[in-house]
Amino acid sequence: MRGSYRIIVSNSNVKYDFTIRRNITILKGDSATGKTTLVEMVSDFYESGPDSGIDLRCEKSCRTLGGKDWYAILKLLHDTIIFIDEDNAFLPTNEFAEAVRNSDNYYVLVTREGLPNLPYSVEEIYGIRHSGKYAGFRQVYNEFYHIYSRPDMMKPVCPEQIIVEDSNSGFEFFKGLSVGKNYTVVSAGGKSNIFTVMKENADVNTLIIADGAAFGSEMDRVMKLLDKIPGVVLYLPESFEWLILKSGIVNADKVPDILDDPGNYIESGIYFSWERFFASFLVEVTAGSYLHYSKKKLNLSYLHSGNAAKIAAVMEQIEL
Question: How far apart, in Å, do the first and last CA atoms of the chain sit?
Answer without folding.
Answer: 39
